[in-house]
Amino acid sequence: MLLSLSGRGPVVEARQLAVPVDELVPVELATVGIVPFTGSPVVLLREPQSGAIVPIFIGPNEARAIVMAQRGVETERPMTHDLLVNLLTQLGGSLERVVVDELRDGTYHGALEVRMTGSNEVKRIDTRPSDGLAMAVRTGAAILVAPAILEAGEDIPFEGLGDDDVVTALGITVMAASRDLREALQLPDEAGVLVSASQGEAAAAGIHPGALIVEVNGRAPLTPMAFLELVSATAAGEKTRLRLLHGGEERKVELDTGLGLTERSRSHGPTL
Question: What pTM value is reported for the model?
Answer without folding.
Answer: 0.84
